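Hi R.,

As promised on Friday, here is the backbone we talked about, encoded as structure tokens. Could you run it through your design pipeline when you get a chance and send me back a sequence?
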């Protein structure tokens, strides 16, 4: 989503709310077999100078893929906040190009810096049996046939 600072300034407003949702084109997750499947963003943009803005909001995103421990397919929702500056003269913020700010870059950077280290179907996932590969979440009384045969 592109925010047009010139249009906002010309409207006489100092701030504006926004909402958008999308499916990322780029692979944002470095967790094997896990991808960001949907992103929803809402927030506000505040004009700070003639070519600068402060942008804050909340991102809801969904990760879909294989649990790192048990390999079961799962989808989980994550919610994170963000607050960034956009300025064409400040190298530490996000760029303003032709009085426009690309929120997609801000959102995707926030997601990538807040991804979990591993993707679990549930916090207490028991994983797979190291002997036979059975999913230990599905069999609470698991008695490995390989161990019994020895």
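Update: got your reply. Pasting your designed sequence below so it's all in one thread:
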């Amino acid at each position: 989503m592109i925010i047009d600072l010139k249009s906002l300034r010309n409207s006489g407003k100092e701030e504006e709310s926004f909402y958008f949702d999308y499916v990322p084109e780029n692979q944002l997750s470095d967790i094997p077999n896990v991808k960001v499947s949907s992103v929803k963003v809402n927030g506000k943009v505040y004009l700070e100078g003639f070519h600068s803005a402060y942008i804050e909001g909340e991102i809801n995103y969904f990760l879909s893929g294989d649990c790192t421990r048990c390999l079961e397919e799962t989808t989980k929702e994550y919610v994170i906040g963000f607050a960034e500056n956009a300025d064409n003269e400040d190298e530490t913020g996000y760029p303003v190009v032709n009085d426009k700010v690309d929120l997609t870059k801000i959102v995707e950077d926030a997601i990538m810096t807040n991804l979990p280290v591993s993707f679990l179907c549930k916090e207490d996932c028991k994983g797979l049996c190291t002997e036979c590969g059975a999913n230990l979440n599905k069999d609470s009384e698991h008695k490995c046939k390989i161990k019994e045969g020895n």
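One thing I noticed while checking it: The chain has a mean pLDDT of 88.

Thanks again,
M.
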